[in-house]
Write a structure and sequence with these properties.
Layout (H helix, E strand, L loop, with lengths): L11 E4 L5 H18 L9 H13 L3 E8 L2 E9 L4 E4 L3 E2 L8 H12 L5 E7 L3 H9 L3 E11 L10 E4 L5 H12 L4 H8 L5 E5 L2 E6 L10 E3 L2 H12 L6 E6 L3 H9 L3 E12 L7 E3 L5
Parallel strand pairs: 4-6
Antiparallel strand pairs: 1-2, 2-3, 3-4, 3-5, 6-13, 7-12, 7-13, 8-9, 9-10, 10-11, 11-14
C-alpha cells in the first residue's frame, strides 16, 4: 500500500507568525507602492522596512488578528483584523503583485470575516482609485458609507482662545470613551490607550469639559479623532499644530463640507481620495470626526 504524503507547498491561509514579518512587509511595500505609482499618487510606505515594522507591531499585538496566504512554500499575501472595539477594522490587505488576480485577496478577506462573525460590524478604508479592491469588498458585502480625502499640511491660524489643548493622558481615557460612544455609538478606548505609548494623542477641553480628542494628528494611517462639533475639532487641530513640528495629516470625510472647506482654507492640500466601507452596523456619526485607515 502506498501512502501519499500531503504536499507542504499546497496553498493555504494560516495564522500569521513572527517569522512572516519580513516577507509580509516586503509585499506590503511592493503592493501599495505599485498601485500608487500606476495611478500617479505618492506611496504610503517609504521603505520596505516601514512595512516590516508595521507587521511586527501588529503580530505582537494580542488584539490584532493576522493571517497569511502561503503557496509554493512562500508567503504571498497577508491581512489583519483589529479587534479592539465592537466594530472590527480590516487591513492592510496586500497580495504579492506576482500573485494578484488569483483569488488570494478574496481568501484573505474571507478568513478575517469568518473571524469577525458575531461582531456588530466590520469596516475598512480603501484607496478610491483601486477599483479592484473596491469591487472585491463590495462583492463581500461592504457598502461605501463615506468618501474621504487624505489631507496634509501646516495650518495658517493660531490656537483658538478658550480651549485648553494638550497631550492626552490615561486620565482622559474614560471621558474620551464616553464622547466616542455619543458620536459613533461605540468607543475606541483600547485603541486610544495604545496610542498613548506610541504616538502623541491630544485632547481639547473647554470650561473643563472634554470637547475633542485625536489619537494622533500627523500619522494618518492610525490617526482618528472625535469631537462634539466641527468647531471643537478645529480648535484641537490648531492647538496641536502649534506644538507639533510635523505637518498635520488626517483623513477628511468630504460630506462634512464645512469642515472640509475649513481644511482647505487653512492651507491643507488633498493628497488622494479614499472610501470608508462598512459591513453590518453603521450609524451616521452624531458629531465631528475623522477616521483612521481601519475605520
Amino acid at each position: 500500500m502506498t501512502i501519499k504524503q500531503r504536499s507542504t507547498s499546497a496553498a493555504r491561509v494560516r495564522r500569521i507568525q513572527p517569522r512572516d514579518a519580513t516577507a509580509c512587509g516586503r509585499i506590503i511595500y511592493a503592493a501599495f507602492n505599485g498601485i500608487a505609482q500606476r495611478h500617479g499618487f505618492p506611496p504610503d510606505f517609504p521603505s520596505t522596512q516601514t512595512g516590516i515594522h508595521l507587521v511586527q507591531d501588529f503580530t505582537r499585538h494580542p488584539e490584532i488578528y493576522g493571517v497569511v496566504y502561503e503557496a509554493g512554500g512562500r508567503v504571498r499575501g497577508s491581512n489583519f483584523l483589529d479587534e479592539r472595539s465592537a466594530i472590527r477594522g480590516v487591513g492592510p490587505l496586500t497580495v504579492d503583485p506576482a500573485y494578484q488576480q488569483r483569488g488570494v485577496g478574496r481568501s484573505l478577506m474571507q478568513a478575517v470575516l469568518r473571524r469577525a462573525r458575531g461582531a456588530a460590524g466590520v469596516r475598512l478604508v480603501q484607496d478610491a482609485f483601486n477599483t479592484a479592491s473596491y469591487a472585491l469588498y463590495a462583492s463581500l458585502g461592504f457598502c461605501a458609507v463615506e468618501p474621504l480625502v487624505l489631507m496634509q499640511g501646516r495650518v495658517r491660524h493660531r490656537p483658538v482662545p478658550g480651549y485648553a489643548v494638550r497631550p492626552a493622558t490615561a486620565a482622559d481615557l474614560e471621558e474620551a470613551a464616553v464622547l466616542c460612544r455619543q458620536v459613533h455609538g461605540f468607543d475606541r478606548a483600547r485603541e486610544l490607550r495604545d496610542a498613548l505609548g506610541v504616538f502623541q494623542p491630544f485632547v481639547a477641553r473647554r470650561r473643563g469639559a472634554l470637547r475633542a480628542y485625536a489619537s494622533a494628528v500627523t500619522f494618518w494611517p492610525l490617526n482618528h479623532a472625535v469631537a462634539r462639533t466641527d468647531a471643537d475639532l478645529q480648535a484641537l487641530l490648531l492647538g496641536a499644530a502649534a506644538v507639533t513640528p510635523e505637518p498635520l495629516a488626517f483623513l477628511v470625510p468630504t460630506r462634512r463640507s464645512e469642515f472640509f472647506r475649513w481644511c482647505l482654507g487653512e492651507g491643507l492640500r488633498i493628497v488622494k481620495p479614499l472610501t470608508l466601507m462598512a459591513r453590518g452596523q453603521y450609524e451616521e456619526p452624531a458629531g465631528a470626526y475623522y477616521p483612521s485607515v481601519m475605520f
